[in-house]
Design goal:
Helix content: 40-55%
Structural class: mainly alpha
Number of strands: 2
Shape: elongated
Radius of gyration: 28 Å
Number of helices: 4
Strand order of the largest sheet: 1-2
């Protein structure tokens, strides 16, 4: 497939050409070792020692197409999360973390507040603490 050829050209530092008219003007890629690898009944070519060593291939195998499809989707999701994290390293913790931090801040302020306001603030903090459980329950967990 052409995508594979493009990736191979990228990691080896080579250039894709459609004719061989001027071989002296073509940028030739480089790799230290090309191996033929058998995985199950499939035969693959493995290129090692390429200039851009960040490239890799992942071989997915499974008993059924559904299992392979699910593994492919899971791997794709994980790679998307990784890509997003590299592009934007700032994170916001999930799982009710924000609500619990706000609840703790309100509780601390309620402890310093006199009178009936403290009771109202503590009730609000308790409501914030219940939000993660309510959201999870509504989500089917």
């Amino acid at each position: 497939d052409f995508d594979g050829i493009e990736r191979l050209a990228l990691v080896t530092g080579g250039e894709i050409v459609s004719t061989f008219g001027h071989p002296d003007k073509v940028k030739i890629g480089k790799c230290d070792l090309i191996e033929q690898v058998n995985i199950g009944e499939e035969t693959l070519l493995k290129f090692s020692g390429v200039p851009l060593g960040e490239a890799c291939s992942i071989v997915l195998r499974g008993a059924t197409e559904q299992i392979i499809g699910e593994a492919d989707r899971s791997l794709h999701d994980a790679l998307c999360v990784l890509t997003s994290t590299v592009k934007e390293p700032r994170i916001l913790f999930g799982g009710g973390c924000s609500e619990m931090i706000m609840a703790n801040a309100v509780s601390e302020l309620a402890a310093k507040t006199p009178g009936k306001e403290a009771h109202a603030m503590e009730s609000f903090a308790n409501a914030l603490r219940q939000l993660p459980s309510i959201i999870a329950e509504n989500g089917g967990y």
